[in-house]
Amino acid sequence: MKGRDEHYFEIIGKNVRRIRIENKLSQHSLAVLCDKIDRSKISDIENAKEDFMLSTILEICAALKINLTDLLIKIDQESDILKNK
To answer: For residues 17 and 36, what is the distance between their CA atoms, to the nearest angstrom?
Structure first.
């Protein structure tokens, strides 16, 4: 996905992945916790490959038991969890 907002999609995707891994969830497990999101959509969001609706992100937040703001925080250095994956 290319565009002026690409940076925001990358931040959100990295945070979804980081929090999912910290919670020891696979993409499939997270998708199961979500009502209408499949594993491939989780992958696309994490890799900033696709635009998404706010309702999709809110559903992911509910499944991860986090606030929307948790996905908007820019992390300068990726956690050790991501470096080892």
So the answer is: 18
